[in-house]
Amino acid sequence: MKIKASVIGDGAWGTATAMLLNSNGHSVSLWGPFPENIREIRRTGENAKFLPGVKLPPEIRLCESSGDALSGTDLVVMAIPSQFMREVLRSMQPGSFAGRAVVNLAKGIENESLKRMSQVFADEIKDAAAYAVLSGPSHAEEVAVGQPTAVVVASSDKDCAALVQKAMMSRNFRIYTSGDIVGVELGGSLKNIFAIAAGIADGMKLGDNTKAALVTRGIAELSRLGTALGGRPETFSGLSGIGDLIVTCMSRHSRNRFVGEELGKGRHLDDIIASMGKIVAEGVRTCLSAYELARDRKVETPIINEVHAGLYDGKDPRKCLIDLMTRKAKSEF
Questions:
Q1: Which residues contact 140 (CB under 8 A, 6 or more apart)?
Q2: d(Cα 162, Cα 177) in Å, to the nearest integer?
Q3: pTM over 0.90
């Protein structure tokens, strides 16, 4: 099955996905919101800003107009950071998604509305054929060079999930299907907050015991909040739950872990974000949404609460750790 695919978003993950689709023999167009970056990729054959050191295949069509990229496409891959997704969707020409399957790669919860990306799409796009979300332990830097990876695609439309699975699956990129859009979106979004906590532990040069405790209790907290928000419990034990949490908390590629590490070293959040340029760590903004959702649903989220305090209240990471460790004694389950 050979299709025409359009990737909207020229960040690391969008670029790696375009390369994956191209390697599977599909016709691929890639568009990004910054025309100067598209022109630079065209000139050098490399996305030095977001995915340095990886050469793009010349067959990938680089577009400075989203309308050009979407013309005649069968599958639209949305690789825009969650906090900018609604703005980009609104910028598209009417009918851009008419009758086409859409797969979302963004991992975040919108701050203003506290909505997941499927809900943002439902607000803004009325004519798409079907919606799917792809998530799981998958750093763009490794996918782009063919490291074996497994992810999950969730959709309420089985045909849409099957289309994405057939189009993107390869010998090095295994895709499982799910019907739990809510759980897969929440797993991919919430794990970034716990990666910030794990990074703080790294920055403070704490040991393996500390990090293992944060990751394990993060799994419990993710599942508790995710289930309260409508996700299926088993989803949080899968690729978009435990799987994505492990890789994001441990990997040198993780932007969220990096933010936490720098906080643990004593840097201020504004300085860290400024040093990253246009590279986005989704967990920073998603923490705001998760904190409000947990309070609204009256769900106990001690790690999210302390990360929120460290990011937005200026609380010293050492005090955050002390407060986590000295909470009232309780049963594990």
A1: 11, 12, 13, 15, 16, 17, 51, 253
A2: 8
A3: yes
CB 89 within 8 A of CB 120: yes
Helix (H) or strand (E) holding 245: helix 244-250
Whether the CB-CB separation of 101 and 160 falls below 8 Å is answered with yes
Strand ordering across the sheet containing 27-31: 61-63, 27-31, 4-8, 75-78, 101-104, 130-135, 149-154, 173-178
Other CB atoms within 10 A of residue 18 CB: 30
Contact of 283 with 192, CB cutoff 8 Å:
yes
CB neighbour list of residue 77: distance below 8 Å, 6 or more residues apart: 5, 6, 7, 8, 9, 14, 17, 18, 21, 102, 103, 105
**Token pair belonging to 69:** 């990229």
Instruction: Report pLDDT digits (tens) over 304-320.
Output: 999 999 999 999 999 99
Structural domains present in the chain: 4-179 (3.40.50.720), 182-325 (1.10.1040.10)
Which residues are within 8 A (CB) of 121 and not within 5 positions of it... i.e. 6 or more apart?
89, 102, 104, 128, 131
Q: CA-CA distance, 37 to 45, in Å (whole number)?
A: 11
- What type of residue sits at position 2? K
Show which residues are catalytic. Answer: 191
- Count CB-CB contacts under 10 A for residue 324: 16
Structure confidence by residue, pLDDT tens digits, 76-124: 999 999 999 999 999 998 888 888 999 999 999 999 999 999 999 999 9
Closest CA to 107 of 201, 165, 186, 174: 186
